[in-house]
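Reminder to self: keep the SMILES exactly as supplied, no canonicalising. Ligand is nicotinamide-adenine-dinucleotide.
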Amino acid sequence: MNNFCSLGDCNFSQCHHCFPVINCSLNHQWCDKFGTLSQIIEIKTQKILVTGCCGFIGSHLCEYLLKNRNVSIFGIDNMNDYYSPQVKEKNLNILKNYPNFKFKKDDITTTNLISDWKPEIICHLAGMAGVRYSIQNPKLYIKVNIEGFVHIIEEAIKNNVKHITYASSSSVYGLNQKLPFSENDPIETCNSPYACSKRSMEILAKMYSQLYKINFIGLRFFTVYGPRGRPDMAPYKFLKAINDGNKFYKYGDGTSSRDYTYIDDIIRGVVAAIDNKKNVKCEVYNLGNSNPISLNTFIELCEKVTGKKANYEQIENQMGDVPYTCADISKAKNDLDYKPKVSLREGLKFAFNDILKNDYK
Ligand SMILES: NC(=O)c1ccc[n+]([C@@H]2O[C@H](COP(=O)([O-])OP(=O)(O)OC[C@H]3O[C@@H](n4cnc5c(N)ncnc54)[C@H](O)[C@@H]3O)[C@@H](O)[C@H]2O)c1
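Structure tokens returned for the bound complex:
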């Protein structure tokens, strides 16, 4: 054994001071016992299942991990048409360039992939997003977000998965008046089936963490935007409409506000939650920017970034809307070393450049 270092970082093709070389002809006992280099790499690589890998946040997370970490990722997504599946296909094509990435079109409510592939860690981002659509389709949100989560957890427990990071939402704070929103605040005013489904996921995670040896981190994302942003959300819709000279709707008088958070900041938070360095058993964290911007100011910023004047029609607030969101991020700072860096103005420029690059070919 002393003849082998354990790092495998030596480049000599016939080196016998490190891992057995691939196709080594010397038949070392060590190689027979511990396997070939590729098998050892597979063992040493962290196996992560990412659900919703073709979506906005999921595709950025996979790309970040594949670029920066020694991981093997299996992504699943059902490619539904809540927004254009072509957008999801484009995201998937980026991930297919990485040899450590595998994909299956699969549904979180029925998938067998956890039993088949046996991940160590799961990052569960698949789900039905969107407040207004949830008011029209409440049963779909219960089915996908709640039943889907339970299916993933039950499979995880059967297969000895130790840690699940999952997407919750700032929407759980509903009509709460106290700002900024803290994880300690009561959650009693959820304002849509979507918000209720996310809150239910948090309650289920708590229950499962009490019954079984499995850790959960729930992340309450606050209005995430950036390149490859979701086409149903205001940052993408407004930038695109203003650039095209098209009319869009402004809901309410423009005094409502949102805590817009740039995708790279969110991804740093998700990765820290996956790492779970503090080994927390079951917690939820706000991942926001802690800098709310009114809708009027947001539209002005979009005008500055595009260099064009907005053309909008003001209409009533919609059912399910909440007046403000603002994250207290002290808990995430403390436990996840979470520090958002990108200002809204800078982030909107990145988002707009991506729209120019991809939507006008
Ligand atoms: N983007 C935000 O601002 C934001 C804010 C709060 C919470 N979230 C949550 O974060 C997660 C990711 O959000 P996103 O913005 O990337 O949304 P997204 O819609 O782009 O990604 C979700 C992905 O899940 C997939 N999916 C949906 N139902 C599925 C099913 N039954 N089986 C398998 N895959 C399924 C979709 O096809 C999609 O690709 C979601 O759970 C969302 O609710 C997002």
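Points to follow up:
Residues 52, 54-58, 76-80, 88, 107-109, 125-129, 144, 148, 167, 169, 221, 223-224, 230 surround nicotinamide-adenine-dinucleotide (CB under 6 Å).
DSSP finds 13 helices and 13 strands in the chain.
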